[in-house]
Structure formats: C-alpha cells, structure tokens
Amino acid sequence: MKFTARQKEIIDIVRDYQPITGEKIASKLNLSRATLRPDFTLLTMVEVLGARPKVGYYYLGHHESISQRKESLSMSVEEVMSLPTLVDEQTSIYDAIVSLFLEDVGTLFVTNEGLLTGVVSRKDLLRSFLGGQTQTTPVGVLMTREPKIIKVDKDASVLEATKLIVEHDIDAIPVVTKKEGGYLVVGRYTKTNIAKLFVEMLGND
Ligand code: ADP
After folding, report:
1. What is the C-alpha to C-alpha distance for residues 185 and 83, in angstroms, rounded to an integer?
2. Which ligand 1 atom minimizes the distance to the CA of 169?
3. What are phi and psi of 25, to 5 degrees?
4. Cis preceding linkage at 19, omega within 30
5. Is the distance from CB of 51 to CB of 40 less than 8 angstroms?
6. For a substitution probing ligand 1, which of 89, 144, 151 has the most ligand atoms within 8 Å of its CB?
7. Cβ atoms 182, 106 nearer than 8 A
8. How far apart are CA 120 and CA 109, in angstroms?
9. In ligand 1, which atom is closest to the CA atom of 171?
10. Pocket of ligand 1 (CB under 6 A)
11. What separation in Å is there between the alpha carbon of 183 and the centre of ligand 1?
C-alpha cells in the first residue's frame, strides 16, 4: 500500500504523540480537520491507525507489515526453496520409497545425466505397489515425465511459484535453471515452504 506524503506525516505524528485528536494533528500540519478527513478514513480503514472516540488516534502499525508481506511475495523462489531430492531414472521403486523416508520428502525429482526428466510422488509409488509392479522396476517407468513437468525458474517470484502449485494441484515443483539440452534442478519448492512463509509473514502481528 502506497501512502501520500501527507498520510506518512500523519502516521509519524500519531506514532510520536499518540493518542492524539484529529484536531491536534490538523493544527500540527497547519491544515483543517476537514481537509484531513479522507486521510483519517483511509488510514483507519487499512488499520494503520485506530480511533477511539474522545481519545483520538493511535498507531496500530500494520503498514510496515503490509509492505513486508508484499516484499515476501516478490522474493525469488531461490530464497525460500529447499534442497532437491533427486533420483536417477534407473533407481528402483524400492530405493525410491527408501529415499522418501530417509530424506523426509513426498516428491522425488528424476534426472538423467543430470538433467530433469521426471517427477515421482508418493501416490505414484503407492499406485505402482497396489498395481503389483515389482519393486525392482525403475522409477522411469511410472514417473510423470517431460514435457508434462511443472517447473519454475530459480529467479521467478514466490507468488508465481505458489500459483503454479495451486493451479496444478501438486505438492512440489522443481526449481530449475536452463541448461543446454534441458533443465538442471537446483531446488524444490513445496507446500511446506509456503506454510513456513505464511507463518513468517503473519507471525509478527
Ligand atoms: P501425491 O500424488 O502424493 O498426492 P502430488 O499431488 O504432488 O502428490 O502429485 C499428483 C500427480 O502429479 C502425481 O502423478 C505426480 O507424478 C504428478 N506431479 C507432481 N508434481 C508434479 C510436477 N511438478 N509437475 C508435473 N507433475 C507433477
């Protein structure tokens, strides 16, 4: 939220002299109370200022956290991602399941010669188990493969990456950089990253 210079002055005055009446604020600014009325309305509406009858205005301080929240959403996904959990296409279903447990993740990214070729989720593995697939079968057989993979560049914004997760209803996306012949996986952006960010953004209130 962008404030006008006058609104910022009002916020500063209230911060220094709270509680302070509208009249006193107006006299400090050499303006009439009527002139400031729209500013008071806006600042109380967005909860930067609180107003108590007969007492005056006081500072609620939400305007900094509002701008911090916006900043968090424009941060690059690289700043919040986790380390990727990678397996090779030849990895057996058995070893992939072991990796899920050892690395404590729900999604594995599959590579071939270092480049991203697929994604295997825990439900993919459960499905293969129920379908009676032998545990020595390579994950390459059951993974979701390129060009179907939803991925995000490391420089994309957190908001962009979060939208991809929501729109495609998936738990995790590989964070990548483009390389000749494909994509290198540099991280993993998951619903857990989003939940942690949410707490960081709102935890200060
Ligand atoms: P789970 O299957 O454990 O609920 P997801 O909802 O993330 O986990 O996965 C659902 C399906 O989407 C799976 O078949 C999986 O292979 C696929 N999938 C998961 N992540 C991606 C991705 N980033 N891009 C494309 N497909 C994906």
Report:
1. 9
2. 6
3. -60, -45
4. yes
5. yes
6. 144
7. no
8. 6
9. 7
10. 106-107, 119-124, 144, 148-150, 170-173
11. 18
Whether the full predicted model's pTM is greater than 0.85, yes or no, is no
pLDDT digits (tens, 9 = 90+) for 138-196: 999 999 999 999 999 999 999 999 999 999 999 999 999 999 999 999 999 999 999 98
Cα–Cα dist 102/87, whole Å: 13
Give the pairing type, strands 172-179 and 115-121: unpaired
Cα–Cα distance measured from residue 146 to residue 119, given in angstroms and rounded to the nearest whole number: 9
* Nearest-atom index, ligand 1, CA of 148: 25
Instruction: Report pLDDT digits (tens) over 31-71.
Output: 999 999 999 999 998 888 999 888 899 988 765 555 566 67
Mutation pick for ligand 1 pocket among 89, 105, 109, 121 (CB with most ligand atoms within 8 Å)? 121
